Task: inverse folding
């Protein structure tokens, strides 16, 4: 893991991260789509519920643009009926969104969102799915496809496909997923990127950026169901992907910190502040996705950097001028829990 250039590094490790998402499961053939296939697209928020707002942009407006692009692209595939929960700036309850999908006989409900974090330092895309039964299996299988598509077509860093249950363990935490499952519809929330982190700005602010996100979503759906399009000249009927088993018991979120975070000094140049570390991290329940470092014993920390999925490798960093020479690293998992490494004192 060589991390002198943050954006370049992120691009280099995204493919490896996505390979690790499947936990070495073997590719199998596509999910068999029934005919006609019905897909429901749900632009998140709306009306007085604006969602996140950064750089003068409301999430509720951006989700409609992504959803429209997804709708237009997906409508070009054969044997697909596409419906949307909203096309105007109106607020819908989570139950209403699920009812629209169920009323249309939808096979899958895709809720379109953009993200923001309290710390304003997270970047990348993530997918939230149900922790129950075949809804878990379908959500996890699709989620890995769409993260791979967003990475390949747009360049967004993959944060993982995740579940979250309510505190009492009775139902999915996210309302649209919970309500859809109650009505027999599988749902997934696609959080495309973070509006509040500069690393992701180009993915939703650039010219044509939202359209690229929507098209990537549509391509992922086409691959998941093995669709073909005479209009686009593509055929995914033989596309194979990692298919997850049903959840025998509800799959809850990871609530523990990574078990291992260790570093070893390989090289230090006092004149330039360049440091090369051998780093190792382990988490039995979810992937390590980021690391940050400190040059003053944990008093201050760098921004987040993408972490390669193999569990260990080389980190190269340059210490800020006010460093004390006490170096340590934090490794962060998919649920944004972290563990601090041992400390190294530079001579």
Result:
């Amino acid at each position: 893991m060589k991390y002198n250039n943050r954006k370049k590094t992120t691009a280099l490790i995204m493919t490896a991260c996505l390979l690790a998402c499947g936990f070495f499961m073997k590719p199998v053939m596509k999910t068999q789509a029934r005919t006609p296939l019905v897909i429901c697209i749900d632009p998140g928020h709306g009306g007085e519920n604006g969602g996140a707002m950064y750089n003068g942009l409301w999430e509720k407006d951006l989700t409609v643009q992504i959803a429209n692009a997804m709708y237009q692209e997906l409508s070009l595939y054969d044997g697909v009926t596409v419906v949307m929960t909203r096309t105007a700036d109106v607020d819908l309850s989570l139950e209403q969104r699920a009812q629209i999908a169920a009323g249309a006989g939808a096979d899958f409900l895709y809720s379109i969102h953009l993200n923001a974090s309290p710390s304003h330092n997270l970047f990348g895309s993530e997918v939230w799915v149900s922790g129950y039964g075949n809804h878990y299996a379908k959500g996890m299988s699709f989620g890995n496809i769409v993260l791979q598509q967003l990475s390949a077509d747009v360049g967004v860093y993959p944060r993982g496909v995740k579940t979250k249950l309510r505190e009492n363990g009775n139902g999915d935490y996210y309302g649209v997923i919970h309500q859809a499952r109650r009505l027999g519809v599988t749902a997934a929330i696609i959080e495309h990127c973070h509006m509040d982190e500069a690393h992701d700005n180009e993915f939703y602010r650039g010219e044509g950026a939202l359209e690229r996100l929507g098209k990537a979503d549509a391509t992922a759906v086409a691959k998941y169901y093995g669709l073909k399009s005479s209009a686009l000249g593509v055929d995914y009927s033989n596309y194979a992907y990692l298919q997850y088993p049903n959840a025998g018991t509800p799959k809850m979120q990871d609530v523990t910190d990574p078990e291992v975070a260790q570093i070893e000094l390989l090289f230090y140049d006092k004149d330039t502040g360049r440091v090369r570390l051998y780093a190792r991290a382990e988490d039995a329940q979810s992937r390590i996705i980021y690391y940050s470092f400190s040059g003053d014993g944990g008093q201050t920390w760098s921004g987040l950097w993408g972490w390669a999925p193999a569990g260990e490798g080389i980190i190269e960093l340059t210490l800020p001028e006010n460093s004390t020479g006490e170096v340590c690293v934090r490794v962060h998992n998919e649920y944004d829990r972290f563990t601090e490494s041992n400390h190294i004192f530079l001579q």
Summary: The chain has a mean pLDDT of 92.
